[in-house]
Write a structure and sequence with these properties.
Layout (H helix, E strand, L loop, with lengths): L1 H28 L4 E4 L6 E4 L10 H12 L8 E6 L9 H16 L2 E6 L7 H10 L4 E4 L5 H10 L4 E5 L9 E6 L1 H15 L4 E9 L3 H16 L4 E9 L9 H13 L4 E5 L4 H15 L4 E6 L14 E7 L1 H13 L6 E5 L6 E3 L10 H12 L12
Parallel strand pairs: 3-4, 3-5, 5-6, 6-7, 7-13, 8-9, 8-10, 10-11, 11-12
Antiparallel strand pairs: 1-2, 12-14
Amino acid sequence: MRSLLKRRGALFSLLLVLALVAAACSSSSDDDTTTTAASGGDTATTTEASGDDTPTTTAAAAETTTTAAEAMPGEGVSVGMAFDIGGRGDQSFNDSAAAGLEKAITDYGIDTTELEADAGGENREENLRLLAEAGNQLLIAVGFAFAEGVTNVATDFPDTFFGIIDDGSIDLPNVAGLVFAEHEGSALVGAAAALKSESGTIGFIGGVSGFGLIEKFQAGYEFGAQQINPDIEILVTYLSAAPDFAGFNDPAKATESALGMYDEGADVIYHAAGGSGAGLFEAAKSFSESSSSKVWAIGVDSDQYNTVDPAVQEFILTSMIKRVDVSVYTTITNFLEDNKQSGVLVFDLAADGVGYSTSGGFVDDIVDQLDALREQIVTGELEVPTEPAG
């Protein structure tokens, strides 16, 4: 009997101890952070835990979990990009296309594959075919030089959609030609050159002649400059002639050509020469420092003030912005929205597909005049030619 009582007493003691421990834990839990959603709203009320600086918000955690679980619109979609000569890092045309692709990756969560043309561009079609065979649903070719390749590969892969920048000649149901009014944007920087020139002589360096595209830049530049000064002298040179496209990636030759123009009296030079433009910027710096007479360079495609070496920034008057990034992003957006638009899509001045930059503040004093010219072009009061007068 006594043994049974002892066991019962021990059991009672054990239950008492457990009850005390539970009460202590309950008291301790009162000090923990508690989060209660405010009635009638989404705002959570948080009480800080004693000795712990980290609040826990149940509502916020739930929202984060919900957001993370939501699929992005581009998940599972593969986009291939075929860069032209110079590829990423050209501080111009290719980089602008890459910027549009990067934005689409961030906004839509697409998968991407990139290939770059070799130095001579002989593998353009091969790269397109590799991207198509890899299963990319949308391919973007960065440059008119891909036209033949896009035609051939798009014919062989009718279920793949293609966008080609700077070419509107391909008549296939799965190809969109993304073209720009380069002549309109160039007119604005031509006017800027004439307004800033003190010598009455300016220059233009084209990358490659003979296929009509770069001549549009020249035509617009000359037209804009002549709206300001009908008697202005304009020096023109091209670094190569089609089918030799080396002029888009020859900075050394651009430096030589620019120095020759500065020696002839030009004090502002505009380039439409892709990666070769870096040579123009170096020439502007070199000539300015050696002659103690500042000369200017004008960039192209992207806001090159923001992409070049800081050492040459002060010599970049402005840039003719060609929104290749917008065309790439728009094409990807249309594709994801099942709004594939074949045919020719034009990005002009009215659509902000082209324009000019103000980085550095060097054209701040002439913005009103440039914007007035822009308005005349947009309204049709002035029609910018697409071919040089000469």
